[in-house]
Amino acid sequence: MNYQVLDITGEKRGEVFLEDSIFSIEPRYDIIHEVLRWQMAKRRSGNHSTKTVADVEGSTRKIYRQKGTGGARHGSNRRAQFRGGAIIFGPHKRDHEFSLNKKLRKLSLKMSLSHYLKEGRLFIIDDFAPLGDSYSSSGVKRKISFFGSDVLIVDSFFDHKLCKSVANLHKTDLIKVEGLNVLDIVRHEKLLISLSSLEKIEQRLK
Q1: How far apart are the first and last CA of the chain?
Q2: SS3 string of 80-106?
Q3: What pLDDT band is residue 135 in, cutting at 50, 70 and 90?
Q4: Burial of 7 (0-12, 13-18, 19+ CB in 10 A)
Q5: Which of 24, 58, 138, 147 could disulfide-link to 78, CB 3.0 to 4.6 Å?
Q6: Count of CB atoms within 10 A of residue 15's CB?
């Protein structure tokens, strides 16, 4: 299909052909959800850990005699019922990552792009170079105001000063085309893709 190409101000600059096998797929939200779970699981550090009885510091001496106290029988003050004692069945350091089929991951990215295109939330931009003319957050925000403030900008290269300017903008992010993923897409309202990035996306997803 043919789709319009805009500049960063929203003016039409021409048209580009989009592959139907990438941008015209009916989304299945169960697949997208599974890939989102996979991505978020990979990002978890898994460093949470609690102490078992063996890890808690304390004396191994019986805290008081077995009978005659009128209280419950206890053998150690390191047990879970005491303050500062062990945690029973608590979390321990582990890897939360799980495997996911590569074809499924690729299909989910296609579905996300197709969904954004269908809803009019995906825009093809001829060039992002004008964003680097003024290295200020307010200048960048003003130039992309046509698309709103909640946008993900996808390109092959970003100037260092531009990255610092965008870093101060809430909900506006930059991502290189090689790192384009479902999680970053769904976190933003609009998706802006440069023409040069479009070619790499189509090569990657064919």
Answers
A1: 16
A2: CCCCCCCCCCCCCCCCCCCCCCHHHHH
A3: confident
A4: middle
A5: 58
A6: 12
Question: What is the distance between the alpha carbons of residues 86 and 53, in angstroms, rounded to a whole number?
Answer: 5
Instruction: Quickly count: other Cβ atoms within 10 Å of residue 58's Cβ.
Output: 15
Per DSSP, the chain holds a count of helices (H) and strands (E) of 7, 6
pLDDT, tens digit (0-9, with 9 covering 90-100), for 63-101: 999 999 999 999 899 999 999 999 999 999 999 999 999
Structure tokens at 168: 């101060």
State how beta strands 122-125 and 172-176 pair: unpaired
pTM, entire model: 0.84
Output the six-digit token pair for 50: 């609690």
The architecture that CATH gives domain 2-44+97-205 is 3-Layer(aba) Sandwich (3.40)
Strand order through the sheet with 2-6:
12-17, 2-6, 122-125, 190-194, 151-155, 172-176
Q: What average pLDDT does the structure give for the chain? A: 93
Quick one: DSSP state of residue 191? E
- State both tokens at 161: 């000063």
